[in-house]
Design goal:
By secondary structure, the chain is mostly helical. The chain has 2 domains: 192 residues, Up-down Bundle (Growth Hormone, Chain: A); 203 residues, MFS general substrate transporter like domains (Growth Hormone, Chain: A). Helix content is 79%, strand content 1%. A two-stranded antiparallel ribbon has the order 1-2. The chain starts with 6 loop residues before the first strand and ends with a helix.
Length: 447
């Protein structure tokens, strides 16, 4: 029997993994606690999109100042990034479900307050700053917990499918939510007394508050044992000590260090070019202009959804080849960046980013599943917070650097980033630790 066919249980006895069901999605949905989580978060995620549309629209209606709109969003993003590591520690200490429940209740109360001042016409810009700051702080605790809870609800062999459902739901909400929010704000504003635009915005916030309530109720309906923390030693550690332990765990493991380093590098090389580079290319290179921008971004989003579905429907790769498959998918992202600047065809560019999006969606699910399976259960919250912090922390820097470089040469910036992505993937393909990363999912005694 080969190493790829072995699975070490907590008692150290080798056991061949169970055959995977031909209907993994059905198996995951059949799990009552996961089903409650999935339904509750699906509704809440849709509400989040209403909030993301209504908030900047509110600032513009009040001030007409795009700069102030940006600062409001920044006020929410800064505490979200800074306190995310603390969110991971609290998740490990008090259980993901408890942290999610507390965060949802706090955010619901903040949105109710925002709804009230908007509908009564007493809203002022300083109120928005305070509410956004507190909302971002609550987000910092919610996000690590939402990623850490899945392994506590379903068995290891179904993690890949469970994560695909969660990530796919996020992708669908981002695709549908803004459109629905925009139409609903307009519809609810029609015929309203007073300032109609404010009425629509206020009711959109109110709808978001209801989605937080729904999500909190589904969390409360879960099995009572989910309320207990998984880390019995957490109370003996200081917060700083717990954060240090998380980083020490990463740095003491060569494979973990390489995975996080690659994740940071890829996020840096992709986020900026996608957010800043693509609209510039659409304006200067593609004949359809804004329509090309929309088509390309939709292609990336649609491809990502396909990749997520593939990750959930397909069996887990052979551990021997998992690292290779992930790096090949990563290289597709770099190839797409090069194609974007090498063609004037919007159709070809859209097809290229759709393939890249599929690779991105697949890699995201596999990476999250790998991390959840490869680290001790008592540290999952911290590991997920570090992974999310790596993405959130590099995004503003990547955007600033890309903006400066794109202003000089968008073609050189995009193609250079693409080549660096491909070189990173090629280098990692030569690494024996990366190539064997799939075995960490099979041999971790914590799951």
């Amino acid at each position: 029997m080969t190493q790829a066919e072995l699975n070490i249980e907590s008692n150290g006895i080798y056991k061949k993994p169970k055959e995977k069901s031909t209907a993994p999605f059905r198996q995951v949905i059949a799990n009552r606690d996961f089903r409650l989580l999935w339904i509750g978060e699906a509704i809440s995620l849709l509400g989040d999109q209403f909030h993301m549309i209504a908030l900047p629209w509110l600032v513009l209606q009040l001030t007409g100042d795009a700069f102030l709109m940006g600062t409001v969003l920044a006020v929410a993003a800064i505490p979200r990034a800074i306190f995310m590591l603390l969110g991971g520690v609290i998740t490990d200490r008090y259980s993901p479900r408890n942290v999610m429940l507390a965060s949802n209740i706090i955010r619901m109360m903040l949105v109710i307050a925002l709804t009230g001042v908007v509908l009564t016409g007493t809203i002022e810009i300083w109120m928005i700053y305070i509410i956004s700051l507190l909302f971002g702080l609550a987000d910092a605790f919610y996000f690590p917990a939402s990623q850490a809870i899945v392994p506590s609800l379903i068995p290891n062999e179904l993690l890949q499918t469970g994560n695909a459902l969660v990530q796919g739901t996020i992708q669908v909400s981002v695709f549908l939510g803004p459109v629905l929010a925009g139409f609903m704000i307009t519809l609810l504003s029609a015929g309203a007394e007073g300032d109609p635009s404010m009425a629509g915005i206020g009711l959109a916030f109110g709808l978001n508050a209801l989605t937080f309530l729904f999500s909190a109720l589904t969390l409360l309906m879960m099995s009572s044992h989910r309320l207990t923390a998984t880390n019995s030693d957490a109370d003996e550690q200081s917060v700083i000590g717990a954060i240090k332990e998380g980083f020490s765990f990463i740095l003491s493991d060569k494979l973990m260090t390489k995975v996080f380093a690659v994740s940071v590098a890829i996020n840096f090389l992709l986020n900026g070019p996608i957010v800043i580079g693509i609209p510039v290319l659409a304006d200067t290179q593609y004949p359809e202009g804004a329509a090309a921008f929309g088509m390309i971004m939709s292609g990336f989003g649609g491809g990502a959804l396909i990749g997520i579905i593939m990750a959930g429907a397909l069996p887990r790769p052979n551990p021997k080849y998992m690292g290779t498959i992930i790096m090949i998918a990563v290289s597709c992202l770099g190839i797409a960046e090069v194609i974007l600047v090498a063609t004037n065809s919007t159709l070809l560019a859209t097809l290229a980013v759709a393939v890249a999006g599929a690779g991105n969606g697949y890699v995201n699910v596999m990476l999250i599943t790998w991390l959840q399976s490869a680290v001790p259960s008592r540290m999952i919250g911290r590991m997920m917070s570090v992974l999310m912090f790596a993405s959130a922390g590099t995004a503003p820097i990547g955007h600033a650097v890309t903006g400066a470089l794109v202003s000089i040469s968008p073609v050189a910036t995009m193609s250079g980033a693409g080549v660096l992505v491909m070189l990173t993937a090629a280098w990692m393909l030569r690494d024996k630790d990366i190539n064997a990363m799939g075995f960490a999912m099979e041999t971790n005694p914590q799951h």
